[in-house]
Amino acid sequence: MKNYLALIFVFCFYSGTIAQTAKSETSGSAILEKLHWIIERSDMDKVRSEFQKICNDNNFSSLVLGLKDGIYKGATPFDDFDYKHEVVFEIKNGKMISIDYDEIHRDGHAKQHDEEYGKNMLQSGTTPAIAYPKYESGMLKKQNFNEIDAVSGASYSLYRFKLVILYAMLNSGEL
User: Fold this and answer.
1) Which residues touch 33 (CB under 8 Å, ≥6 apart)?
2) pLDDT tens-digit readout, 43-95
3) Phi and psi at residue 27, to the nearest 5°
4) Which of 98, 102, 123, 168 could form a disulfide with 72 if both were Cys (CB 3.0 to 4.6 A apart)?
5) With b meaning 16 or more CB within 10 Å and e meaning fewer, what string describes 126-140?
6) CA end-to-end span of the chain
7) Which helix (H) or strand (E) holds 105?
8) How far apart are CA 51 and CA 42, in angstroms?
9) Which domains does the chain have, with CATH numbers?
């Protein structure tokens, strides 16, 4: 009889552990971290398709209209180049009224104000100082990150921008 009780205990323990593991892999933060690494380590075709698929599969909204009034803050994990993508935006009367996005290096400097980085990136057609304000103004105008046009040479930045907005929504309990 003791053996059966021990067997039942072991079965219940492992079942709970497996269920908890499955649950944690499907939590909002785990899903966003998966998206983060897809953006950082995949070609743009995969980023486009996987980002949209994962958002659709998990009912992640690209709309900010209707969010509760308040200040929203989000940040991704550091990427392979030691940058963390950060956003702060304000919702008032259900509409985004301000937004500030940048990529901050582990040492504290921001890409948007890094002149040397900007000079190097200009060869691709743009710089963070040009692209990020366009993404911010597009978000304020459209209120939907899926309706923002990519800036040539800053497609990955657009997906990082979208992702960090999702992190901010998750942090506030709105995702």
Assistant:
1) 77
2) 999 999 999 999 999 999 999 988 999 999 999 999 999 999 999 999 999 99
3) -70, 160
4) 168
5) bbbbbbbebbbebbe
6) 48
7) strand 95-105
8) 11
9) 28-171 (3.90.1010.20)
